[in-house]
Structures are given as C-alpha cells and as structure tokens.
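We emphasize that the prediction below concerns an isolated chain of 248 residues; any contacts that depend on oligomerization or on bound cofactors are therefore not represented. The input was used exactly as deposited, without trimming of termini.
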Amino acid sequence: MMHAMKTTHTLLIAVIASLVLMTAFRPKASPTLTGAWGYGPADNRTVMICTDKVFSVAQYNITGKTLLHSWGGTWRLAGNQLIRQIEWDSRDSTQVGKELSHTIQASNATLRLGNAPETWQRLDDGGPGELAGAWVITGTYNNDKVSKRPNPFFPRRTMKVLSGKYFHWIAYHLTNKQFQNAGGGSYSTVNGKYTENIEFFTKTPASVGKTLSFDYSFVDGDWRHRGEKSTGGVMDECWTRREQLENK
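Result of the prediction step, given as a token string:
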C-alpha cells in the first residue's frame, strides 16, 4: 500500500514538473503592432497608427500647429523584419513605391526600429474605439441617400487610419506621387457620437486644439459620418473599409 502511494506521488511530481517545463519553454506569442505608438514632446510629436495592414506616421508640432512630416502605406512582418511599402510621403515623393525593411524589437509596451534611437511607447492596442481600421471616403449623403464616387480608391485617395484612440486622415495621389493634405489627433466613440480632438490639420491650422463631435453609424458596412466641419458647414460622408475596395 505504502509502495503504491509513493509511486503515485512520484508520478504526480513528474507530471507537475513536466507541465512547468512545458510552460516555461512554450514559445511566446509575438507582440502585435496593431494600435497606436508614439514618442516625443508636444512640439515634436510622432504618432504611428497600425491597422492589420496599413500604417500611417505623423510628426507634428501641436503648439506651433504645424505638420512636420506625414508618410505611410502598407506593412507586413517577416520574422523580425518590418517591411513597409510607401504610398505617400509629404517630405520626399521619391520614396513613394519603395519598400523599406527594418529589424524590430517589440514588446507589448515598447517598439524599436532598426538602429534608430527612438523608443516608441504603445498608446493603445486597437481599442476601445469602434472605428479602428483603414477607411476610404467613397461618397456623400443627400436626404439620407448615398451617392458613391466612381473612383474613390485610385488614383486620388482620401483615407482615415484609426487605432482605438487615435486617427489620421490623408489625401494623396498615387499616380503623380503627390501628398495633398493631412490631419489627426485623438478620438472617442460613445453612444453614437464620434469625437475628434485635433492635434494637426494642414488645410486649416486654426482648427488645431478644437474638439469636434459628429454622429456616426454603420450603413451596409459603411461608416456614415455626419456633422459640422471645423470651418463650418454641414457634412454627411460615406466611408468604406479599404479592404472592401481592394477586394473588388
């Protein structure tokens, strides 16, 4: 009897030890880049937003109400390499179309790219906002009826890239590689209200610092975005997820 109890006890210890070792050496899931990352003070702030496929970087001076640099496109990971295909660059249009590759060191809280000295801090992980993703403006509403543009995706594109708390919008031309305008800041979605806090805006720098509230809803998968423009006047826009346009 005692021998059987000792055998059972030994087997139990062996099982526990095996489970501990399996847990210790189980490969850890790679941190996701999805969400928003940032570094720098208010007069030289840089924010990068990553959806599951699209990225947007904005460097700006909040106090000076000036955009310093906007660039972005699509991204993917290959091992420890971050590969980015450039679609727009406000500073250097010759970068458009190029593929850039950097080694990355990422945790759930920080991100390092190549040999760059900056350490990005995670700002959010894609939540809690309900509009996270890449959206392209595809039309406008008139008397609750949408009118879609014939070519919203190419060659000229106006896109909003949102994480869970931050947004960028960018207008750029794919054929002539020209950047046109951009804006961005933080946002929230609460009870059907989409609220933006503007931190940069190339079209109207005087709008920096404003808080704007809009109604938002989903109509057949599209985002209906309506309210009043920062410069005044009514708007009622239709935005479609980028992947839907790419899959057509």
